[in-house]
Design a protein that fits this description.
The protein has about 290 residues and is an alpha/beta fold. About 40% of the residues lie in helices and about 20% in strands. It starts with 12 loop residues before the first strand and ends with a helix.
Length: about 290
């Protein structure tokens, strides 16, 4: 019998939404009258990162996910790396869908975008969830970027070279991350891996992804300035981390508090590495549901 989580749900609805110079691929499930949970993916994935969690959540919430501008079905004239610009596109989707009581959930680079959204539009958010990532310029950022195991931050930052080496080899390159930094790589199935490779098959998509990393210094400068501005954010934040990710979760919590976030909670996802929405979707949804409700 097939695992109920193995296939993207047919109940999810796909559409394209025009925001500025972008045509954003949006996926929705559940009732539009329920509170909204908006999911943002990271590297090297697309909206499908969250399809298992969305299937669970759609019984209780209006779930929305999108391909970040330039990835998969989201086409954009000038792909941006700056997380504030990406957050503006996401804000355009929120407005176009007329979403209310929004909880924003970001994984990996999507978590960085969620933080940028929080600094720009905190009064429009109910809650924010950031998963399995460090935020540029916010502790423990400086320690993380010195870690030799995080070599790809520097590699992706090099102009042009990553595109030349990875184009046409997306499947092998992405598999390295799926196999190395997850506790259960088998949960990211062969079918899913093919879909992720397809989402980055266009050279523009690959450049978009590497531009996320090339913008880290710019992101860090902005976030550091924000953290030093003594601005106070009342929007509740939940920081989630796979237990096998390593790192001290308390350092991340202190970093958010130092940056002016007043209401920070944390949660550890047991038996999971970096790709917790796919490795442990039930536990992720359990933690999200508790926070949202």
């Amino acid at each position: 019998m097939q695992n109920s989580h193995s296939q993207p749900s047919l109940a999810l609805r796909h559409s394209q939404i025009r925001v500025a110079d972008a045509d954003i691929h949006v996926v929705e499930g559940g009732s539009a009258t329920d509170q909204a949970i908006l999911f943002l993916h990271g590297f090297p994935q697309n909206w499908l990162t969250f399809h298992k969690v969305m299937n669970l959540a759609s019984k209780q919430a209006h779930v929305v996910a999108l391909d970040l501008p330039g990835i998969g079905g989201s086409k954009v004239a000038t792909p941006a790396g700056d997380k504030r610009i990406i957050a503006d596109y996401v804000h355009g989707v929120v407005q176009a869908l007329d979403l209310n009581n929004v909880t924003l959930v970001g994984h990996d680079v999507g978590g960085m975008v969620a933080f940028a959204y929080l600094t720009s539009y905190s009064n429009e958010l109910n809650r924010v969830v950031i998963m399995d990532t460090v935020i540029p310029g916010i502790d423990p950022w400086s320690a993380v970027i010195q870690n030799p195991y995080i070599w790809h931050f520097r590699f992706h930052n090099i102009p042009d070279l990553p595109e030349k080496l990875v184009q046409g080899k997306q499947a092998d390159y992405f598999a390295y991350f799926f196999d190395t930094i997850s506790k259960h790589p088998e949960t990211i199935t062969k079918e899913m891996r093919q879909l992720y490779s397809q989402a980055y098959s266009d050279p523009t998509a690959l450049s978009t992804a590497f531009n996320w990393y090339r913008a880290f210094e710019q992101d860090a400068n902005y976030n550091t300035t924000f953290a030093n501005s003594n601005a106070q954010i009342e929007t509740p934040l939940l920081y989630l981390r796979g237990k096998n990710e390593g790192g001290d979760i308390e350092e991340y919590i202190r970093g958010f508090q130092k940056a002016g976030l007043k209401k920070v909670e944390s949660g550890m996802i047991s038996d999971s590495g970096h790709y917790s929405p796919e490795e442990q979707p039930d536990e992720v949804w359990k933690l999200l549901a508790k926070f949202v409700n």
